[in-house]
Amino acid sequence: MRALLEAQRAAFMAALPEPLSVRKDRLTRAAAMVGDHADRFCDALSEDFGHRSREQSMMTDIAGSIAPLKHALKHVDRWARAEKRKVQFPLGLLGARARVEYQPKGVVGVISPWNFPINLVMSPLAGIFAAGNRAMVKTSEFTPATSALFEEVVGRYFAAEELAFVSGGPEAGKAFAELPFDHLIFTGATGIAKHILHAAADNLVPVTLELGGKSPVIVGRDADIRQATERVAIGKMLNAGQICLAPDYMLVPAEQQAAVVEGLKTAASAMYPTLLSNPDYTAIINDRHHQRLAEWIDDARAKGATVEVVNPAGEDFATANSRKMPLHIVTDVTDDMTIMQEEIFGPVLPVRRYEAGIDAAIAEVNRRDRPLAVYYFGKDEGEKRRVLDRTISGGATVNDVIFHVSMEDLPFGGVGPSGMGAYHGRDGFVTFSHAKAVYQQPKIDVAKLAGLKPPYGAATRKAVAAQMKR
């Protein structure tokens, strides 16, 4: 891996400045690499998951990968323009000029997760390539078929000095994180992110962390319950809840809890009347994660929670040779339950009541770590504004869930334990660029004019007084 990094950096330095035509060509080739092998990638994803909805994979990992690449291709000319900045009076009148030029950083390391193992490679690459960088990608050991396919096809589209994929388990991941990249982006769990940050610190590598957390849904008293529950059910059951932005728990007015639970059950049953043989519904990634979810559900039951399993066809999941898991709606939840302490990352949805006004729900959110997203459903503009102003999260969607991540002109990222930094669209271009300040001095002797040139005297005192004047 170190030899690969050195080869990429040498190629990068030899090519500077990286022309926009080359950047656009890489974006085009990246889109082709995914699009040309869409069917094979969908097959690999389904093999890795045990079953994954083909249509979902086409939406989230194929089309969802090509869209940011096309967006970058369309806008990179504008993003890459130098930005004029002001200079202090009267230097501008005398011919001084200032600007910010965006330069590529060099070689960017990408550590991708297993839940969207194509999209969460290609979406960062849109900004990385637009900015003029090279990239090395460490894929997840939990999706070996997808990783192997990337390694098989990448050479048809890219030289190893432009883009390379490496795979392996935790030891390979640790070694990858310790490489002296020019930037590193990690998408995954908060606990692992701490180790990534420690590893990168030894080389002072700038890091972007895309993590997760417990993203809440706040339902206002005037919300359309049918609409809210349907949209939450869609977001929670997409990829079987294995989404960093999945709604993690709901906060609902006490008098509407029963209606919310019924709405969730109705919506889930309509979308997935069966589950075990339903090609639209995705399985849990592996036995360990399936067991983890089952244990957390048992923990909640043992501590007094009510668990409703949305199984409209009455299927036997206990004896099925499958890791598919139906939606579990959990009420009467308390803070000592694991599902209220950890990010769930599966089709388990706690529903909690709030008794007073919206401030009670806001307080519930604010006593936890800052989440990757906050979702609010309601019609009251003042209430909506209060939720947005009084909660701090990576992003927010109003009257739906998850959708803000698909808006290419919005930055995507977390805050605190849910992440560090952001990318997507121009924000990704800026993240993976170095903003170089460039100042051009006029012909006159500015140092003398500003009183900077010794021997100091009246001109110096006059310049200081002018700057200190209030």
From TrEMBL:
InterPro entries: Ald_DH/histidinol_DH, Ald_DH_C, Ald_DH_CS_GLU, Ald_DH_N, Aldehyde_DH_dom, Aldehyde_DH_NAD(P). This is Aldehyde dehydrogenase. The active site is at E210. Belongs to the aldehyde dehydrogenase family. It comes from Sphingomonas corticis. Residues 6-438 form the Aldehyde dehydrogenase domain. It comes from the Bacteria. The keyword Oxidoreductase applies. Keywords: NAD, Oxidoreductase. Gene3D superfamilies: Aldehyde Dehydrogenase, Chain A, domain 1, Aldehyde Dehydrogenase, Chain A, domain 2. Pfam families: Aldedh (PF00171). The lineage of its organism: Bacteria, Pseudomonadati, Pseudomonadota, Alphaproteobacteria, Sphingomonadales. PROSITE patterns: ALDEHYDE_DEHYDR_GLU.
